[in-house]
Amino acid sequence: MCLWGNCREMHPVEDQLIKVAEHNSQHVNAETEQHPYRCRWIKCGSELPDKFALISHVRESHFMLTSMTLPKIFYCHECSVWKMCKLDWEIHCQWHIKNATSFCGFLWRQGCLIVAALCPFCIGKQNDLPSEQFRQFRHPEKLISHLKTHANLLDSLGPHRCPHPCCDTQLSSSDELIAHLISVHGLPCLKGLKR
């Protein structure tokens, strides 16, 4: 039985775990539209600082699975660690965003990828999920293809500010911005980036 607020929906034993987690996620997602984030589990009422804290709370205090806490494996190339669910991955990515460095390029050793590249445009998008900001690109072709989705930002006339949140460099043209992304942020050659 669901003990969130006044729900009391019964989940038969044969219900798949995914279905129960999706049901629980609806409650948590509805709650994250409001501030502060409050646990509505029966007799709880805890207030939490953010969405991830609320999801962690319901997992750890009430053993309540959500789609963010179902098992799924994520790998961080920078830390060489595995995260076993979406929630842990989001929290890990959030840490990287808060502690971002200006380097966004690939790091290879003897043909092996050590550090995956990041998109300097996405890393600064504060309204996106941390995993979207800290999206790791393992192949140069995929990074270039992704960067082309930001090409409209390069087409605008006038001065360009570097999109990376750790950099305040002002550049006079899109060509200067591309050169800056290569020389300062370590991105690979970006030929063909402009439309």
Question: What would you note in describing this structure?
Answer:
The chain folds into two domains: 1-69, no CATH class; 102-183, no CATH class. It is built from seven helices and eight strands, in the order αββαββαββαααββα. It has helices at residues 17-31, 51-62, 86-98, 130-133, 140-148, 151-155, 174-183, and strands at residues 37-38, 47-48, 71-76, 81-85, 107-109, 112-115, 160-161, 170-171. A hairpin with a 4-residue loop joins strand 3 (71-76) and strand 4. The mean pLDDT is 87.
Please write out the topology.
Elements: H1 17-31, E1 37-38, E2 47-48, H2 51-62, E3 71-76, E4 81-85, H3 86-98, E5 107-109, E6 112-115, H4 130-133, H5 140-148, H6 151-155, E7 160-161, E8 170-171, H7 174-183
Antiparallel strand pairs: 1-2, 3-4, 5-6, 7-8
Instruction: Tell me the quaternary state.
Output: single chain
Q: Would you tell me the structural class of the helices and strands?
A: alpha+beta
- How many β-strands, per DSSP? 8
Order of helices and strands, N to C?
HEEHEEHEEHHHEEH
Give unreliable regions as ranges: none
What is the overall shape?
Answer: elongated
Give Rg in angstroms.
21 Å
The overall number of domains is 2
* Strands ordered across the widest β-sheet: 1-2
Biggest sheet details: 2 strands, antiparallel
N-to-C span:
55 Å
Determine the number of helices (DSSP H or I, runs of at least 4 residues): 7
Q: What is the percent of helical residues?
A: 25-40%
Mean pLDDT rating: 87
Strand content: 5-15%
